[in-house]
């Protein structure tokens, strides 16, 4: 196992966490209908629900909050953020939003016509939803290895260029843009290679279609390029980032990930064509274009976070910590998606608990077991999240290919010791998986049911 390097920071402020007793955890689970979204965070010991908006800010970001300029128009933090985005990504036009999905909403409600097609390596849920709600068809064209749990392909987030080429040919005139999600969150946090971005750009150019990057985890992706791609090992990360984005026509961003901020996002574009319409829409739904739904201080935290995330000591630690955590589990035979992704470790629920049939949601059962055993919160990305009623078999469901549990690691929040504890809890559950009980849904909403569903143990 690669040993994680020490944390490249020292601690200045602490937030106490507490592990409640097992009997209380079991009671909390019962009351929450075995849905971890319904457990208050003070009853969670280690919270790996998401890496989004959960980062710890630096002393410099906290100091930056005091420089917040809360003018309605033209505040200084906006100009600093604009300069930061231009410097890092190279896009001249920039629209702040309060989080990533608003950038997606603005984009797709402005440029999409009903019946249009939007290819992506894999759409994240909110991207897909924003395409579909505007009458579009969201297509996932990741390479086949991207869907295989055990393929060791170094860039499992890559776009399948042949399928993209065919898709753009067959749908000529109906594709307003192509997206590329880096890293590919829904596919296990897997990176896209620089060569594949180049290839995607070439295909897009041949068909005259713009390419936009979903940049949420752009710095982690650049770190993987540097580590894994031939000829990239000696390049500064900043330079790799600059090259990646020079190949695209714009990006959407949630600064809650690689912006190291607790809130914030943006849409950035090279070309002016859509900008005026986007800004008018922004004024309607978010606010004036120099604050976009955020306080001036949030813009400052975001700008500083975008600069800090490119620090190579930070990135080496960040990606190294997640890798070491995942590899420690893999070495003990625990079935995880490999290679380990940038922001999270994904456990294969069906492989972990083979005694549970897929209809009993082994992934959800594992999230319950990890809370019961150690107060850990994770999230199921499988049958509960994506299962759909099967019209051919009343009462049964069509289940997705994979039933995963995501353990997302917040940035700069948990130490290596915390993650060793989590690994120990997972091992303890894995030593006696037959103690895990299957899950039955007793209440569900018609859409996005995983947030509010209630369950029973079988
Ligand atoms: N794109 C990707 C790839 C994401 O992972 C997310 C959010 C978004 C867009 C939307 O950004 O939350 O700021 O509106 N992912 C979070 C997660 C929620 O837990 O993976 P947002």
Outline the fold blueprint:
Elements: H1 22-31, E1 46-47, H2 59-65, H3 76-89, E2 93-97, H4 100-111, E3 117-120, H5 125-133, E4 137-140, H6 161-170, E5 178-181, H7 194-207, E6 211-214, H8 218-228, H9 237-246, E7 250-254, E8 265-269, H10 275-285, H11 296-308, H12 312-331, E9 344-348, H13 349-352, H14 362-374, E10 376-377, E11 379-381, H15 383-386, E12 388-389, E13 397-398, E14 404-408, H16 416-431, E15 439-443, E16 454-457
Parallel strand pairs: 1-10, 3-4, 5-6, 6-7
Antiparallel strand pairs: 2-8, 7-8, 9-14, 11-14, 12-13, 15-16
Helix pairs in contact: 1-14, 2-11, 3-11, 4-5, 6-7, 8-9, 8-12, 12-16, 14-16
Bound molecules: ligand F0G.
Structural key phrases:
five-stranded mixed beta sheet, three-stranded antiparallel beta sheet, single chain, binds ligand F0G, 16 helices, 458 residues, alpha/beta
Structural class estimated from helices and strands: alpha/beta
Beta-strand proportion: 5-15%
Enumerate the distinct ligands: ligand F0G
Roughly how many Å is the radius of gyration?
Answer: 22 Å
Label the overall shape: globular
Would you tell me the overall average pLDDT?
96
Number of strands: 16
**Which runs of at least 5 residues are low in confidence (pLDDT < 50)?**
none
Q: What is the helix content?
A: 25-40%
> Can you list the strand order of the major beta sheet?
2-8-7-6-5
Quote the distance from N terminus to C terminus.
37 Å
How would a crystallographer describe the biggest sheet? 5 strands, mixed
The number of helical runs is 16
Any overview of this molecule?
The chain has 458 residues and is α/β, with parallel strands linked by helices. It has helices at residues 22-31, 59-65, 76-89, 100-111, 125-133, 161-170, 194-207, 218-228, 237-246, 275-285, 296-308, 312-331, 349-352, 362-374, 383-386, 416-431, and strands at residues 46-47, 93-97, 117-120, 137-140, 178-181, 211-214, 250-254, 265-269, 344-348, 376-377, 379-381, 388-389, 397-398, 404-408, 439-443, 454-457. The chain is built from 16 helices and 16 strands. The chain has a 5-stranded mixed β-sheet with strand order 2-8-7-6-5, sandwiched between helices. A 3-stranded antiparallel β-sheet has the order 9-14-11. Helix 7 links the parallel strand 5 and strand 6 (211-214). The protein is globular, with a radius of gyration of 22 Å. The two termini are 37 Å apart. Bound molecules: ligand F0G. Ligand F0G binds at residues 50, 52, 99-101, 124, 126-127, 181, 185, 214, 216, 254, 256, 265.
